[in-house]
Every structure is written in structure tokens, then in C-alpha cells.
Design a protein that fits this description.
Blueprint: E1 4-13, E2 16-26, E3 31-35, H1 42-50, E4 57-62, E5 65-66, E6 77-80, H2 92-104, H3 107-113, H4 122-138, H5 154-166, E7 172-176, H6 184-201, E8 204-208, H7 212-218, E9 221-226, E10 229-234, H8 236-241, H9 246-252
Parallel strand pairs: 3-8, 3-9, 6-7, 7-8
Antiparallel strand pairs: 1-2, 1-4, 4-5, 9-10
Helix pairs in contact: 2-4, 2-5, 4-5, 5-6
Bound molecules: adenosine-5'-diphosphate and magnesium ion.
């Protein structure tokens, strides 16, 4: 299957099970919201899919390829966090270009690169500049390309983080509460942009949120997680109107 497949993934911390055999599939083109109480394991699962952390058991596949043992850059996934994690000494254009430059280089070359001139042939640099320009255009950042992060608003910084995520045209987007630092009006606006980016990319998107209205309005399906387990995965309507389980009903606040 194309997209993200998580099969019976387990993860323990200090002997405590944090993920208890999680299975979840997000098809290419599908937007799945992952919801659940704080501490239930959402961010842990996202880190495992991104490759920042490794599971104790189970497998992770991206577009049919087993990536469980691969480093993050080899997985064809992009992750957007709540904290924007931009490089303060790089311009907006350079921040957006980071994943492209990383892909072209070996590990040993990466560190000295940050904050210096991008390496490679003139053609490679031109390719990077074009990719950066089209990602910036998609997020309305073309007038800000030469600024530093400190010269941007919170909303603009988050758009740079989103541009950096789409620039590699990944097979999967992983977003962990990307809007929770934005004010309410901006959040609603950026929601639409994220769904639009997802549609245009045709990617598999897994989107963690603690905001029920985000989950119910943005997602094709909602996955409800509790205490390291996925309780139900269904359409927003089904989750709300026909919860499988009292724990789902209680969490979503549906009438049952
Ligand atoms: P969520 O994102 O759903 O709020 P997390 O995945 O961040 O939850 O955390 C799930 C549980 O795993 C929490 O109890 C947290 O304390 C624990 N945990 C997460 N990462 C680590 C870690 N690196 N070391 C120890 N415990 C961790
Ligand atoms: Mg979290």
C-alpha cells in the first residue's frame, strides 16, 4: 500500500509501555488526525514514523518500503512541529533549502554547511533556488526570503516551517500540533492552507491535534488514541455519531 503503514509498533521507556502494539495506515492522499489525551503516546508515534526514534518492535512502511531501520533523511517524510525550530542565523530562503541541501550531502559534510554557502554545481544550486521559490510561493513567503527568523511573526515562522516541509515533495507529512502556538484567527486560516498543501502534494498526512474542531473539520479519518493504544479509526462523522467505545465517546464528547 502507498502512504504510511504502522504495524504492531511497540515502544517502552524505562520499562513502561508507551506504545502497546500500534497499527495504523494512512493512504496516499489521505489526511488522518491523531487525537488523544496528553501523554497517550502521540508524539512518540510521530517520532518513530519520522525516524527520530526507533521502535522496540513492529514495522513502519512508507510507500510499501520498510523504513524501520532507515535514518530520517532516507524516509521521504517531512515533519512539522509545534516549535518551528528554524535556524536563527539563516535567511528564510536558506531555512527552506536545508532539507534539499541535506539530501545532496553525506553526514560528514552537513554540520559545517549550516550558515555557509550551499555547495554543489551551479545547476544544483539553481535547482535548489527554484524549489525554494515554488515552496515559498505556495505559502506566500516570496517577499520574505531574505529575512531572518527573528524578523518574522509567529505565523510567518510557522509558514517557513511548512515551506521547508513541502520543498522535498515528501510522500508523507507528519505534523505534531503545528498550529498550537498561533492565535485563533491565524489558526483557522492556516488550517485551510495545510489541507490545501496536503491535497496538492497528494501525500499521506498524519496530523496530531488536541483541538477537536481541527480534527473533525480537516481530516478524512480520525484516529483516537489512549494510553498507548489506538481505540478507533473512522470518519469524523462516525467518530462523533457512532463511537465504538465509551472511552472514545468520552474523549470526543459525543452524545452517546
Ligand atoms: P503525547 O504526545 O500524546 O502527549 P508523548 O508521546 O509525548 O505523549 O509521551 C507519552 C509518554 O511517554 C509520556 O508518559 C511521556 O512521559 C513518555 N515519554 C516520551 N518520551 C520519553 C522519553 N524520551 N523518555 C522517557 N519517557 C518518555
Ligand atoms: Mg505530544
Amino acid at each position: 500500500m502507498t502512504g504510511i503503514v504502522v504495524e504492531k509498533v511497540t515502544r517502552h521507556f524505562a520499562g513502561q509501555p508507551v506504545l502497546k502494539g500500534v497499527s495504523l495506515a494512512v493512504a496516499a492522499g489521505e489526511f488522518v488526525a491523531l487525537v488523544g489525551p496528553s501523554g497517550c503516546g502521540k508524539s512518540t508515534l510521530m517520532r518513530l514514523i519520522a525516524g527520530i526514534d526507533r521502535p522496540d518492535g513492529g514495522r513502519i512502511l512508507i510507500n510499501g518500503r520498510d523504513v524501520t531501520a532507515l535514518r530520517p533523511a532516507a524516509r521521504n517524510v517531512a515533519m512539522v512541529f509545534q516549535s518551528y525550530a528554524l535556524y536563527p542565523h539563516l535567511t528564510v530562503a536558506e531555512n527552506i533549502a536545508v532539507p534539499l541541501s541535506m539530501r545532496r550531502m553525506g553526514v560528514a559534510q552537513r554540520l559545517p554547511l549550516i550558515g555557509r554557502i550551499w555547495p554543489g554545481s551551479r545547476a544544483a544550486r539553481r535547482g535548489i533556488a527554484e524549489d525554494v521559490r515554488s515552496a515559498a510561493l505556495a505559502l506566500g513567503l516570496t517577499n520574505l526570503l531574505e529575512r531572518r527568523p527573528s524578523q518574522l511573526s509567529g505565523g510567518q515562522r510557522q509558514r517557513v516551517a511548512l515551506a521547508r516541509a513541502i520543498v522535498r515533495q515528501p510522500a508523507a507529512f507528519l505534523m505534531d500540533e503545528p498550529l498550537s502556538n498561533l492565535d485563533a484567527a491565524l489558526r483557522v486560516h492556516t488550517r485551510r492552507e495545510i489541507v490545501e498543501i496536503h491535497r496538492r502534494a497528494g501525500a499521506a498526512t498524519l496530523y496530531v491535534t488536541h483541538d477537536q474542531s481541527e480534527a473533525l473539520t480537516m481530516a478524512d479519518r480520525v484516529a483516537v488514541m489512549q494510553a498507548g493504544e489506538i481505540l478507533q479509526v473512522a470518519s469524523p462523522r462516525a467518530i462523533y455519531a457512532d463511537p465504538d467505545d465509551l472511552r472514545v465517546a468520552t474523549f470526543i464528547g459525543s452524545p452517546r
